[in-house]
Amino acid sequence: MSSLSRELVFLILQFLDEEKFKETVHKLEKESGFFFNMRYFEDSVTNGEWDEVEKYLSGFTKVDDNRYSMKIFFEIRKQKYLEALDKHDQARAVEILVKDLKVFSSFNEELFKEITLLLTLGNFRENDQLSKYGDTKSARAIMLVELKKLIEANPLFRDKLQFPSLKNSRLRTLINQSLNWQHQLCKNPRANPDIKTLFVDHTCGQPNGGRAPSPVTNPLMGSVPKVGGFPPLGAHGPFQPAPAAITNSLAGWMANSSSVPHQAVSAVPMGLTAPNNAASMLKRPRTPPNNPAMDYQTADSEHVLKRSRPFGMSDEVNNMAVNISPVTYPGQSHAHTIYSSDDLPKTVVVNLNQGSAVKSMDFHPVQQTLLLVGTNIGDIAVWEVSGREKLVHRNFKVWDHGACSAALQASLATDYTASINRVMWSPDGALFGVAYSKHIVHMYSYHGGDDLRNHLEIEAHVGNVSDLAFSHPNKQLSIITCGEDKTIKVWDAVTGVKQYTFDGHEAPVYSVCPHHKENIQFIFSTAIDGKIKAWLYDNMGSRVDYDAPGHSCTTMAYSADGTRLFSCGTSKEGESHIVEWNESEGAVKRSYHGLGKRSAGVVQFDTTKNRFLAAGDDFVIKFWDMDNVNLLTTSDADGGLPASPCVRFNKEGILLAVSTSDNGIKILTNADGVRLFRSIENRIASGTVAKGPVIGTFGASSSAAGTSIGVGDRSAPVMAISGLNGDNRSLPDVKPRITDESEKSKIWKLSEINEPSQIRSLKLPDGLLAVRVLRLIYTNSGSAILALTYNAVHKLWKWQRNERHLTGKATTSLAPQLWQPSSGILMTNEISETNLEDAVPCFALSKNDSYVMSASGGKISLFNMMTFKTMTTFMPPPPAATFLAFHPQDNNIIAIGMEDSSIQIYNVRIDEVKSKLKGHQKRVTGLAFSNVLNVLVSSGADAQLCVWSMDGWEKQASKLLQIPPGRVPAPLAQTRVQFHQDQTHLLAVHETQIAIYEVPKLECLKQWVSQESSGSITDASYSCDSQLIYASFEDGSVGVFTATLKMRCRINPTAYLPPSPSLRVYPLVIAAHPSEPNQFALGLTDGGVHVLEPTESDGKWGTIPPLENGAGPSLASGAGSDQQPR
């Protein structure tokens, strides 16, 4: 079968899956043999559908194809046999033995005899080898792990375990593009052609009136992506394709819209694109060019793909198995974990007395027990729901009366009160916004405990401000507001400067819902007349004009994974509707039953876990499964709810806040939530956890041990942390703040750890040559550690997920495996003609842990982390690369620090250096991106920090480190940088000091200078929640600091290293776990890698210094001893 025919099969598979032809999908997978759906295979095995399991496997392999296949079939049939024996179904067991297992007797007769003897036992567990056999469910799960390894190792499954990276509804898009071209080639194109069939080519009939408008002024489609030099790696690769102008999202809405500014061909998506782009493409109708950079490659383009070029990708890249289990189709929106209604939070565990009627609530995106509340009299509050404590309370107050408009001043003179319509946390939880019923929006910055600071006051609209939301257009955090003046406005979240105003609604705007598909950012808005519109950030007008069901006041929300769109609203007559939309067609996909016909007020709703919907209606909370239109269940929360209560899930979906009729709030949980509360309460009872948590904003008190809470799913993105190695990772939950009672603080002293019994440590097993470790990083999943050694070899340790270790995360309680692919190859950087003593090794890990980009003084190499194969090399020295960092918004772009002191901004997809930044005097040794400030910070061996704008790459600021008097650093001493999770404060690491700077001004807020007796600082890193800083020293010790540079614990080398008088061993690099704040890893001079954690009884590193209790000190720089911040 030709490559195009093969690709067509994948397009058909995607189409069938999107249309829910589930049986047909799997039949085509099997009959074509192109894609082995591991998820379907797992489900079939788990359900014991043995006939279907073997039938599906038969499309890809037979029993005697190779030893892997034989082992796969043997394990399946053996399990089937054992289950029959376990049920004491002797007849069935004999049948399986004769029909299914007999075939293996010719290969291992002794084994077959032993299996046969099991028939004679009353319980086959009497056999020593089967004595640990548990129940059927666990046995199948254990077998599945083995089967997956066998399938991954089986060469017959190579390139069949990963579905190609396709945009949603790719086949429909191609058909729509074809219809557009056909229509452009019509001799008499009509303005609104009637396309009724795909069976024959489209042609317009003879014109009955004027010709259609010129394609230049009436674009029918977006621009075709620019021709590139080689194909993108796809969704799982580190280099994403450049955003195409066409998107399926909302395309059908525009095609069906009655008032779209530019008429579209019926049934053909127009795409969210600026008209001039389309115009440039349609000036001369022609056949689309062969485009190797597009998703669908033609046969003619294959020679282009194989052409040698500096960054030519091999065909293997597109077919590489990256994340084999579980596999879902791109756009497969309904592949989710199986939940039951028991997973819903329905148990009331907390009652909070707010004091006034609750209008809006929002759980913190990181600290999942923190609830923000706004009321009908303008009060805001931040609650720690697990401790039932109101941490912050503010009444309505205008901050600057002089800046108010005359209209607002007149309104306030008449009635100095305002109701709150919406409260919402920013994606990283450092800010929150409040929309009031009178003109203004308040932005606060939250620093933990009761530390709430005024950030921005914006007079956003004339009259009522109905809603607000956060988004990231143009790579900057923005606030979106809407209001009574019928407009939507976009504001810079840092400066408060207005960026866009969208006019077009004919009634007051009720709600906004920002989102993005691929790299296209857009906003849905709804008005009180039931009109829905969509906008791009381009001031080109609305792209959609559509009616909500029942012409109702409507709010819209996406599922947590961003693939499904829902709306809920109530009409003037009180009839409520909750529906799911088909975005590609702009039509209601399903309407859910069970909402009242005479609702009092507008019904509010929320989504969770990509699976459930909840709405407050008829004095209860109503729940739906997203895939079932019928009501799943209801909860009255033990009574006391208003007719249309306000409801809000936390990110994990284990807590649900609901407003009550007596001006209170009830917190409902499921079993996981109950366990969470008990864990926190136990810690509070033991005096180890304070009531107020610390949020990730810089300057809050340090965190320590607490309940480890994973980040759940909500559609709002989480800010990234730019690590010392240039990696970006999602924020974990921040742990509750530790506090000491006043008496304890008076006798506080630095915790010294000297003995192995005072610490949990693990030296990672290593069968390779022990060579000093120069770079170290955890994978973003937290389940593996990657090291780069002096001899340019990478070592990867993986922790396995099993019954004893369910999380699969790195831990000191279980040794990982030094992982190598079956080929036995090593990931080794290109080092020909390289003097390793002069080289500065560097690497950067892709966000999905599938690829690593690395250099050791030679060319930059791109490795596949599954196979260890070198996918490509590029940029040969001189100059050599000395630091690598992926651009946070575009994985096609990397920042490369160079030996010659320059920084190159390089687009790997088009093999082009976009900018060359010059500001350092010596080699560049650190790079860190800030999403919030839209800047790149660089550091060099010249002990200088530079700030560069990500828009034009101009230098904004620079500053030399403050080298302590009398200290002379090495000529090429490295300086590294890492952003705090608030993305505005920066950790700078030098052999003489660690220091905190505020960006972009580079004001030094704190400095800690090392004592010469402990040797130079070799490395340092923030913990994952930015509440601790780990620093390693030349004497082998590790210091654990608070976020304000107070040392709280020192770990001496005797605690984790065996005595070795003849060998001086110390850590060169340190890496923090991405989701466990109290775990870190060290890379040593002897080649060892050690993972360190506090003991389970301690749960944290040391205790907080006295000044750290309470709200914490300011970050003003001050003098101190060498062991205190300067």
Automatic annotation (TrEMBL):
PANTHER family: TOPLESS-RELATED PROTEIN 1-RELATED, TOPLESS-RELATED PROTEIN 4. WD repeats lie at residues 458-501, 603-634, 917-958. SMART domains: CTLH, LisH, WD40. Keywords: Repeat, Repressor, WD repeat. Pfam families: LisH_TPL (PF17814), TPR1-like_2nd (PF21889), WD40 (PF00400), zf_topless (PF21359). This is CTLH domain-containing protein. Residues 1110-1126 have a biased composition (Low complexity). Residues 34-92 form the CTLH domain. One of its GO terms (biological process) is primary shoot apical meristem specification. Residues 1094-1126 are annotated as: Disordered. InterPro entries: CTLH_C, LisH, Quinoprotein_ADH-like_sf, Topless_fam, Topless_Znf, TPL_SMU1_LisH-like, TPR1-like_2nd, WD40/YVTN_repeat-like_dom_sf.
